[in-house]
Amino acid sequence: MLGFVALSVVCVATATGYVLHSRGRVRALAQAAAALPAAAPESVAAVEAEPHVLFRNMSVAAQAGLVALAPLNQADGPRQITGYSCRRLYMAAGHGLCLAEKADDPFGSPYRVRFFGPDFTTVHELPLAGLPSRARVSPDGALGSATVFVNGDSYAGGAFSTRTTIFDMASGTSLGDLETFATFKDGKRLQGVDFNFWGVTFARQPGRFYATLGTGGHTYLVEGDLAARTLKVLRDGVECPSLSPDGSRIAFKSKVSSGGLGGVKWRISVLSLDTLADHPLADTRNVDDQAEWLDDGTVLYSVESDTYAVAADGTGAPRLFAHRADSPVVLPADPPPAGVAAG
Questions:
Q1: pLDDT of 87-119, one tens digit each?
Q2: Helix (H, G, I), strand (E, B) or coil at 30
Q3: Which end of the chain is more exposed for a tag (fewer CB within 10 A), N or C?
Q4: How far apart are CA 139 and CA 143, in angstroms?
Q5: What share of the chain is helix, strand, coil (3-state, %, to 5)?
Q6: How big is the chain by its Cα radius of gyration, in Å?
Q7: Which residue did the predictor score with more confidence, 186 or 13?
Q8: For residue 212, is pLDDT > 60?
């Protein structure tokens, strides 16, 4: 009994030490980043006034994870680095979603979902249940989604599981966890204690989205209806879907190795929603990312903190799009402020 108590004390002390060390690391990085000048608001606005790409800057250790912008036609050129830090981010129609680590709350929830605008000022903030993984915003900016890794589920056997939440972007409130939605496969209700959802991507139709459901060794592509709070299984073998701008195809990561000494590996692929048939893209490296579409013919994704572009039809070869940059978001030119003429 004394041995068990001693072991428990050691475990608690170790966990507490890890939490404090992690907070200390985050605080130190935040202080280092604050010591470096952030991009001037007028410089950021100038980039936002033309088609541009938003991403996490990874070029300098002290500024790693800070949101940066670059003109779309010079994505690997000079970048404007803000002081806004995210582990994952996405933006659409002037509404941004940032999954971040909070340095000044050592014993509370260590992660936050932050809702921000074009000036990179947080307007709403909520705690996150686990480690940030994926973020998306609907094309109209009305809805957002965050996926996090969590532990403690009895079925997971000590491994991580996921939580995926839909948000109202205007109010910064939760609209529910996908595990509370009713799931159907071949017209019949599908249920399981091991349900995990991740990687939401939104369609242009309000309230419609796609995601991955992991259960029983399967990774199903599901189509969601927010108003009905239902999910429909479309096919197996799809992870982290990303809907093309024209709404006809989905880029996703396809598992090509299930583990062993080499670990789990994925290859980026594209499927047609009309036929649900897919084809791999030209990059044969391991791609563990939720892709972004540069345009209807080109897919973006990150490998080891560099972002690459490759043709969506499977031809050609991957090319470097932006070095030391991940979590890319392709955005059009922002409209001018009210009362200001364009051009």
A1: 999 999 999 999 999 866 655 679 999 999 999
A2: helix
A3: C
A4: 8
A5: 15, 45, 35
A6: 21
A7: 186
A8: yes
Taking the C-alpha atoms of 331, 149, 66 and 137 in order, what is their torsion angle to the nearest 10 degrees?
20
Separation of alpha carbons 17 and 268, rounded Å = 39
* Dist. CA 327–CA 53, nearest whole Å: 10
Through-space distance between the first and last CA atoms of the chain, rounded to whole angstroms: 76
Strands 319-322 and 161-168 turn out to be unpaired
- What predicted TM-score, i.e. pTM, was given to this entire model? 0.87
Phi-psi region of 41 (alpha: psi -120 to 50; beta: other; left: phi over 0): alpha
- State which amino acid sits at residue 290: Q
Q: Looking up tokens 């080499």, which residue turns up?
A: 262
Query: What is the identity of the amino acid at 73?
Result: N
**Assigned token pair, 157:** 């056997």
Contact of 84 with 58, CB cutoff 8 Å: no
What SS3 state is found at 34?
A: helix
